[in-house]
Amino acid sequence: MSDVNYALVSVPKGASAMAERMAVLRVATGRGVTVDSSTAVAAAEVLRLWRRQVVQLRDAGWGPAQGVRFQYLRNCPPSGVEMKPAAGSPRMRLRSCTCQSVCPWCWSREVARRSFDATVAALERLGETFERGETLERRFKLVVSTSADVRIDSKREPGASLDQLVGSLGRAKHELGKFAAGFGLLGVVSPGKTGWVYSQRAIALVPCDRPPGSAATKTYDPPTRRNLAKAVARFARYPAGMLRGDADRAVRLLAARGSYRLLRFSGAFATPGRSAPDPDIRVDPRAHTATPDLPTAAPRGFDGDHELPAPARQ
Ligand SMILES: [Zn+2]
Fold it and tell me: How many angstroms does the Cα of residue 292 sit away from the middle of ligand 1?
């Protein structure tokens, strides 16, 4: 098996596809690719970076990149853009690698898409219109907050630090639950320059009369479909360190991260009847108990019912 030569067929106009590609293509910036570069250029760059990282992950000993799966990872179909094998590409079955903790395309399909769907469903449940929101009276506004500093020791091995991150998400859930009609919380961790970088994010529908939060909180108003895509893309932005960071640290993170639920939806964002984790997902019991001291100002909070899908297999 060898690499499929993907060619851009189209750039879907729908808001969900917009959110899916905005969440990952930004990682392409650098090396002459800017945020203004065409979608085709950015998508090709993400593909190049991913294929390079797959080699490094394999060489660093990551289980899923060994043997026959190596090529499936490299050929994982892009998301948010329609790309097909160009003429002359090797004929082979293409399938998602399902390693959404690290693969940018699967992250896009799982984290960004699920967040988009949950946000749309929440607006609908609350009876909020989002096509022409500015002409109607609304009760809730869509906000996204990011907290880059969750005061987790960046040098410590990921295991205990992930416990801390889960604790931080729990506190955020508690805080957000006091006033938000619904929200999503995402804990993000990726290799940094010297260790691992932790952050947490929230996307929430909060009462319109609630004052704006800190500078790290952005309001997307009116919640048109385009604003919705932008909000979800900010919330679900792919962590660049997984693609550009040290592969050995990425592998140690992936080994530790498997059972943690880092994506959660609560209130109007939670899917009725889906309060239990997917059956194939291992849930660390520690995720339900709790929690060391929380760091700084927790981003406005949250609760959780879902998590980050299929953990990367080791
Ligand atoms: Zn993938």
Answer: 33
